[in-house]
Amino acid sequence: MTVEPARSARPLSASAPRATADRTGGPAAGPWQPPGGRAAWTAWSIGASVYVLAVIHRTSLGVAGLDAADRFGIGASALSTFSILQVLVYAAMQIPVGVLVDRFGPRKVLLLGVLLLSTGQLAFAFSDAFGPALASRAVLGCGDAMTFISVLRIAARWFPAAKNPLVAQLTGLAGMSGNLVTTVVLAQALHSEGWTPTFTAIALLGIGVFALVVLFLRESPEGTAPAAAPAAAAAGRPRPAVRRQVRDAWQEPGTRLGLWIHFTTQFPGNAFGLLWGLPYLVQAQGMTRTEAGGLLTLLVLANMSFGFLFGRLLSRTSRARMPIVLTTIGVTSLLWAVTLAWPEGHPPLWLLVSIILVMGSNGPASLVGLDYARARNPVERLGTASGIVNMGGFIGTMITLFGIGVLLDTLTPAGAGAYSASAFRWAFCWQYVPMAVGTVMILRLRRRLAAEAVQGF
């Protein structure tokens, strides 16, 4: 493997164009710095509103899982297919979306994402059969995939590099407000208004968000190269081929470390919040839907709190990155072990509250992976590298959703009206398979980066 000493010795910031660095290793000649300030927060807020909308669409099935099972006459495996397909499409689209953001800019990609989100949700609202409903969730997943990376790219063009970790966490926190809308508003609307009116109303929210982006979003400050034009093109160098751009991003160890961090930290809370949390609390723990919805709301609030805390820590020092990741993995694994080992599979309320609070740290910890990729890749391939990292958690979520669904059906007698606490307990043990694989890969790549630092790369 050939190493570029000038690049590796001092990782390039996502906020400064690569063309400003002296390729001979000398000092940069007047690097441009993003301005920050009120205009930056305005641009970020508009982009983040699209991500909030995407999270509302993404998590809408989390409170409608039991309704969907009744509407389409399906079991746990088929029900999990909804979320699995949506997440699969999301993960598969990450690299293409990253390339699109690098080539055409985040504004155009966000607009396409809103159109796909609204179209998919509207089709889902009127679906009365499993096949069409499944296809609509795939369209929705495609639109969802176009939002988060685009918002991060806007932030990288508007904010100084030191603020990027905080802004990334705030983006995740903003997304959790969409999850809060789902658990509080959508759950109540499904009960009072029914399936089609509720999902139609969600789909129509896209009209206002689309207009907001068209009329007010500026993806980069005035007087700078547009975010769609990479620094290489601005300096007169040809754009790299897509295959080379993806290859170069993947060969960077920081990108791969970011992917495995995202993979390992995100999926427990994601799988619980997206699909299996409500059935587990209602069918296995005997809660009412209102009580279960309250605990899912607690998951969202915990996620928002940890997002703010981690953002503050990471904006002060990058040394907090790996301790946050390993602590999150360790505490999540430990509390799930205690919960699943509890006699008869009925842990007390305080333990359920504890594991839900801890899972609230999963999403914010996964964003540390994006910080590793941002610090180790030049700006012209930042979208591509972020796309690779962002695949991780959703691949882990997909594996977990499918594994739990298959085990629930396998452990439940045919004709049973609900899944037992015992079935849920053994099915949730599946989480330790992806968690073990991810942890091994994180430790392996961490040692590689440490070795490179010692060698002066």
List its traits.
20 helices, globular, 457 residues, mainly alpha
Largest sheet: none
* Low-pLDDT segments: 1-30, 227-236
What is the general shape? globular
**Total helical elements:** 20
Based on secondary structure, the structural category is mainly alpha
Summarize the structure.
Helix content is 76%, strand content 0%. By secondary structure, the chain is mostly helical. The relative contact order is 0.15.
Description:
53% of the residues are buried. The protein has 457 residues and is an all-alpha fold. It is built from 20 helices and no strands. 76% of the residues lie in helices and 0% in strands.
What is the secondary structure topology, with strand pairs?
Layout: H1 5-9, H2 37-59, H3 65-72, H4 76-104, H5 106-126, H6 130-144, H7 148-158, H8 164-193, H9 195-216, H10 231-234, H11 242-251, H12 253-284, H13 289-316, H14 321-341, H15 349-359, H16 362-366, H17 368-376, H18 382-411, H19 421-428, H20 432-455
